[in-house]
Amino acid sequence: MLQSIATKTIRDGRRSLMWWSIGLGSLAAFTVLFYPAIKQIPELDELLQGLPDALLRLIGDSELLSPEGYLNSQLYGAIVPLVLMFYGLAAGAGAVAGEEENRTLDLLLANPVARWRIVVEKALAMVVGLVVITAVLWIAVYLPAVLVDMDLDPVNLVAVQLSAALFGFFMGCLGLAIGSATGSRGLAIGLGAAIGIASYLVNSLAPLVEQLEALQKLSPFFYYYGADPLRNGLDLADAAVLMVGGLVLVLVAVVGFRRRDVGV
Question: What end-to-end distance do the CA atoms of the chain give, in Å?
Fold first, then answer.
């Protein structure tokens, strides 16, 4: 009898999780260590102020010389959420649809385990992966920041990691819902990525394009980044939207998986 689907999923994916953590952590550490060189070029602020507003919105922050502005523009504005989005989508899409395409789902279903438990424990394994990656990221940012005298609030740094993890959870649950309902890992990743990138563009350009303003609060990027958690701390309402939205998508995944004939 299978005792823990989540534990087995984490164990099977530990090597991939290690490389995701090392890759993002190394990029973050290098970015922080490069900050003193950027800080010595005050002309960069003047250069940024001369850029079009649309480009500044895509960059993520125009105050490049402040610690928060630098990290927002180089890491937390786009790179970190996009990396966690693709990690979540890969984990969510592979949870059910990946098992099905690899012809291993029949072995899983042969155990006395309900379909809802498979979905829930796969989602739990994804959460553990996101926690590990964001914990490594916090260390990879904070320790080099101390080394180069980068004045960062460690609590606010935790807040932005948590907000990023919740964003990755929401997007991963979207991939899980699509994959569980369709049985197609490629569709889950492709459609989820398209939705994620579109939501990034909507959130970035909404302040400049009147027609997009009504759509901004439908973007998960708005709830991840809108309150600027690196400067202001975690916005509990925004965090709740991402968490509850992810849980609703897990429920959708359960319903979709239970109603579908599985191809094994």
Answer: 20
